[in-house]
Design brief:
With 107 residues, the protein is mainly beta. The chain has one domain. 4% of the residues lie in helices and 39% in strands. It has a five-stranded antiparallel β-sheet, with no helix packed on it. The radius of gyration is 13 Å and the shape is globular. The mean pLDDT is 87.
Length: 107
């Protein structure tokens, strides 16, 4: 999944999934030019992070890299999560419902 801001920047960029889906979804994040999906998941990630959110509701992956109208965040999943939270850690966060959660609710 490729996401980027239409204007401004998200820094550092992050993707979060429901914490109970972590082992099934196995999220990863990479940054690259708009429309140019990274071809390797083996790249060395400097200043990256993977951690639970402060409220322990989300599992957050990110990197101290800026997403902009020309630099996209690419999210990779083994299985599509039920929902995601994304953006910049110090910027507005955005929420997207993607499918059904473990309780069968959602789109």
């Amino acid at each position: 999944m490729e996401l980027r801001p239409r204007a401004g920047t998200w820094m550092p960029g992050f993707d979060a999934i429901p914490i109970q889906e972590k082992t099934v979804v196995q999220p990863a994040i990479r940054f690259a030019g708009r429309g140019h999906m990274p071809t390797s998941m083996k790249a060395l990630l400097i200043n990256s992070f993977q951690k639970p959110s402060e409220d322990n509701e989300w599992f957050v992956v990110g990197q101290a890299t800026e997403a902009s109208p020309t630099i996209s965040m690419f999210f990779f999943y083994k299985q599509l999560p039920s929902k995601i939270l994304f953006g910049g850690t110090n910027d507005p966060h955005y929420y997207m419902q993607l499918g059904r959660d473990q309780n069968g609710t959602g789109v």
